[in-house]
Write a structure and sequence with these properties.
Chain lengths: 491, 227
Amino acid sequence: MFFTYLRRELRRRRKAALVVASGLALGIALVIVVSSVSSGMEKAQGKVLQSLYGLGTDMTVTKAAQAQSSTGERPRFQFDARGSDSDEEQSSDRVMVQGFQTLATSTVSKVGDQKGVSDVVGGLSLQVVKVSGQFRQGQFQQDQQSGGGGNQQGGQPGAQQSPEGRVEGGGADFDVNNYSVYGTDVTKPALGPLTSSKITSGRTFKSSETNAKVVVADKSYAKEKKLVLGDTVTIKSVKYKVIGIATPDSGDAAANLYIPLKQAQTLSDSKNKVTTIYVKASDSQQISAVKSTIQKNISGTTVTTSADLADTVSGSLSTASDLASNVGKWLSIAVLVAAFLVAGLLTSSAVSRRVREFGTLKALGWKSGRVTRQVVGEAVVNGLVGGALGIALGLGGAYVVTAISPTLQAEVGSTGGALGGGGPGGGGGGMGGPARQTASKALDVALTAPVALSTIALAVGLAVTGGLIAGAFGGWRASRLRPADALRRVE
Amino acid sequence: MYELRGVTKRYKRGKESVDALDGVDLTIGDGDRLVIQGPTGGGKSTLLQMLGGLDRPTAGSVELDGTDLARLSESKLTKVRSENIGFVFQSFNLIPTLTAQENVETALVPLKLKVRERRERAAAALDSVGLAERLGHLPAELSGGQQQRVAIARALVKQPKVLLADEPTGNLDESMRDEIMDVLETMWKEHGLTFIMVTHDSAIAKKAPRVATIRKGKITVKENANS
C-alpha cells in the first residue's frame, strides 16, 4: 500500500512534484558545477606549481633573503675596440647565480636527515648573459684649420670637437642573449624541476654523467636557437653537447638549458653550492610539520611549501578560483537553502490540501506515524528525482566547462624564498646583487571541471536531505491533523 | 454497547466559549439502529465524533463496551477505531488516487494482514455491495452511488461492531439515496452491528426505530413506533 499510494500520489501531483524537484535540481547542479570547477582550479594551480617545482616536490628550501649590499657586484663586460674595418666578433658570458643566495651542498644532506623527509635533491639556478658583437674604433680626422694630428685611437663614436680634430665612424653592434641554466643532480632524476618536462627527443642524463659536458634543452628554447640533437652550446667558452630536448608538461619550463650540477657549479664559481633544495615529504598530510622541523633545525633557511606558493598565484586563475570558492560556494548554499525552503513549503501546502484524505485515514485507524511516513516518503522521492535531475544537470555543466576548457592565466609572484627554478629569459631577473628576487612568472593553464565520486555522493546526500527537510515540514503538518477534520462538511 | 454520561464538549473562541454538547446522557445497545437529527450547529457531528473516538469530551465519559474512550491514549484510541468502528461520510472521502479495491484495503492496513488476504477481503466486501466488476476503477470513474457503496464496503470490511454514518445520502439524488439506504440496512441486518446515522432527511428518520434529536447541545431520544 505504501509504494502504491506514493506512486499514485506523485503521479497525480506531477506538476507540483516537478517544481519541487526542479528547485532541488538547480541547487544540486550548482553545487556539482562549483565543486568540480573548484577542483579544476586546484588542479590547474597544482599544474602551475608543478611546472615550477617539478613533480613530487612538496617544498623547497632556499637561503633566507638578506639585505642587499649597496656595494653589490654587478657584471661588467669589457671589450677591446678593433680596427675600424675589422669584422671580428667578440663575446663575453657572465654566469650568475639566479635569484637567491646559495646554500652549501651539505645542507642538502642535513635537510634529508630531518624527520618526515622522504627524498631531497639540490639544484643550482643560473642566469647567463652573453654579450656578443663587433666593436670598432673610430677614426680621428684632423681639423684642417688647426692642422697636424693623425689618427687617434679612441673609442667614442660620433664627432667629438677638439682643438685639433674629431673622431668619426666606429661604434658597437652587439647582441645580448639572456637565458637560464639549471644545474640538476643527475643521480636523482625523480625530483626537481626537470621532472615537469618530458624528454621528447634524445635522452635525459645518465646517473654517471655527474660532471659531463652534456645539456638538455627546453623545446621552446631549442626551437628559438635552432638547436637539434648533437649540436653544441657554448657557455662561458665551455662546449656542451645537446643530448635531449625536453617539453614541459604544462606551462613554461623551469629553465632554457639543463646541465649536470657540478658543471653549473664550476661555470658560476659556486663550488659545493646550490640555490634550491627540493624536498619530498613521507606523508603529504604532514607537510606543515616537516616544514617546521626543517626551519627549526636548520637556521638561515626559508622553507616554502606549495601552499605558500599558491598564495602568491595571481592572474585570472586566482581570480576565478576566488570567485568559485567564495561567490560560487555561497551562491550554491543560498540556492540550496531556498530550494529546501520551497520544497518544504510546497509539501506542507500539499498536506493542507489533503486534510480530508489524511483525516479519513486516521479515522480508519491509521496511526499518525504511518500518515507522516507516507508524506515523508513522497517528499524523499521528490528529493531523489531532484537529485537525479541535478546530477544530470551538474554533470552536463561540468562537461561543458571541460569541453570549452577556457584558458586562465596564473602569475606566480616571488616570495621571500620561493621559486628555485627560474623562467626562461627572465627579463633581467637575476642580474645585479645577490639578493635580488626573480621576476614573477606567467603561465597559461587550461581549466577543466573534473567530477569526483565524492561530489556525486554529496549531491545524493543533499537530495535526500532536501527530501527529508520537505518531508519534515509536511509530516509535522500531517501529524497535527485531527481525524475529526474528516467529518468537516463542505457547506 | 455505548454508555454516554454527562458528555460535554466546549469550544473556546477567544473570551467566549460554545458548548457543542451539554451534559449528554445516552445509551445505545448492541445491534441498535439510531438516527441523530437536529438543526445545523446543534451538535450532531460533535456527538458522532465522540462516539467514533475522533475527539475527546471536555467533561463526561463515553464508554464503548465498558471502555471509556475519553481516557484512552491516542494510540489505543486509534486501535479501537481500526478494529471496531466503521465510518461512512457524506462526501464519501475516498482516496482519489487509489482504486475501489485499494480504497477498501486502506481500512485493513492497520490490521497488518498479509497482502493477499487484504486484497481478497476487499474484493469480497465490494462484491457484497454489488461492485465486483468495479474493483480496478478510480473514484472519478464511479458514480456518486457507486462511490458511496465503496465507502460502505470500506467501513464494513473489517467487520466492526459499530457503523457510524454522517449524512451518507447527503450528496446523492433521491434514487441513489434509496439505493444506499437499502445497502446500509441490509448490511446492518446481515452483520448485526450497531448502526448510528446522522441525517437531515426526515423520510429516513421516520424508518429508524430510535431517533435522537440534538438542539443546542442537548439531546432527546424518541422511540419510533412506526419504524
